[in-house]
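Human: I hope this is not a bother. Would you mind checking the protein record under this note? Thank you for your patience.
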Amino acid sequence: MSYDPNQQQPYGQQPQYGGQQPPPQYGGQQPPPQYGGPPQYPPQPQYGGYPPQPKRRSPLKIILIIAGVLLVLCVAGFVGIFVWGKGEIDGAKASVDKMMQAGKNNDPAAGFALFSQIAIDQGTTQEDVAAFFDNRQLFDGYESIELGNNFSVNASSDTGTIASMSGNVNYAGGSGTFTATLSKENGTWKIVRIDINRN
């Protein structure tokens, strides 16, 4: 069989090409032809008015979040200052305790090693420390010191970090008081001046 383009096919029949079978008939009619067109989507729900707007955060919620973050930072800062401050207080207290132990043991060399460069520059010598330790009532029976509420630190570029402290001295048979000024040198608290009174 051949195809003659000038020959018309009967209505409702497809031309035959090279022995192809015509498409099947459905109920005596051919299915409607399909043309390329826009794809079919399911119907969209109808909204009244404008399309929905994204939800905005309320200013109160934002303020509360910022306040919460600031509170956490403040608490962390206070804890850091407290830990730093406690370390500084403990270091200064340890230096005074070592001075009292050196006096109790009547060891002027150990006592002199606890004095700061400021005290040495002002004329403090190991002989001065030996004379200080000769006042045995200030050191005999020494047990411990307790800090009072007075501990202050002053830092400046001229003098470095200076601390002032006071408290009680506990002896085996009594008590006393002390005041001390210390300087921080190479990470260690050194004594600039110390005064001890036994009751």
Remarks:
- The CA atoms of residues 157 and 184 lie 12 Å apart.
